[in-house]
What we know:
Elements: H1 2-14, H2 24-47, H3 56-113, H4 119-144, H5 149-174, H6 200-214, H7 222-240, H8 248-267, H9 272-312
Helix pairs in contact: 1-2, 2-3, 2-5, 3-4, 3-5, 3-9, 5-9, 6-8, 6-9
Amino acid sequence: xxxxxxxxxxxxxxxxxxxxxxxxxxxxxxxxxxxxxxxxxxxxxxxxxxxxxxxxxxxxxxxxxxxxxxxxxxxxxxxxxxxxxxxxxxxxxxxxxxxxxxxxxxxxxxxxxxxxxxxxxxxxxxxxxxxxxxxxxxxxxxxxxxxxxxxxxxxxxxxxxxxxxxxxxxxxxxxxxxxxxxxxxxxxxxxxxxxxxxxxxxxxxxxxxxxxxxxxxxxxxxxxxxxxxxxxxxxxxxxxxxxxxxxxxxxxxxxxxxxxxxxxxxxxxxxxxxxxxxxxxxxxxxxxxxxxxxxxxxxxxxxxxxxxxxxxxxxxxx
Length: 318
């Protein structure tokens, strides 16, 4: 404990503001705030009743990562999942029920104004107008039901960035010499203050991130797979006719794959404490995604079986 306290005092002396480069009040707000977190981390690593065989700083990094994700990011992910359910189970059924009526209305309007052309041109104009009306109504319903897809997708990302950046900055500051991180190794890390010499953890980080990207297809219902196959066939038919088809999902997925590779490169250059945090956070995110997707898959299967089961239940005779 005395060694830990001495190391902490050394870190404080090293990062103490000096000179007149900036106003004293600004320096105090900036450096003291970071030192507060670094000192708190060192105190926590010293105070935790860990077995002597557990490396204190590495274990504290893992514990802080799991606890902070449970407290901060998981509730927002659940909220985003609830918004997604409202969009799929309340808004989209309404939109689908409007399609026949809107189609007839557009056809009647086209007949009144005397739209002329080939069969293909009339069908294209009809489909375009129907799509415009349905898209407008869909956006209105998303607003009414508070389940806009764009904001729903952004919620998990927005809530993770402050925690991710903040903890990474604190651990990076703690890795600057003199630091107690120099005295502790973990797995392939020779010390928590230096990069992984074998690049094992950076590669693991990239694979975990890639698994999180690709696992979206692992938890799909039969109806979802069938719908996806129909959409894919429809896109192929449009491409065969020479039409341009933009697929945002494929673009996003390709970008996330590139990010997975990029994370490996960046992770080979950061201190061991930071890469340990990144790997722990990515692993937690992957497990969280699997659990939530599995529970959602089970829920959708039960909803799909409910109508069939209700038909099999015999009604009481009058």
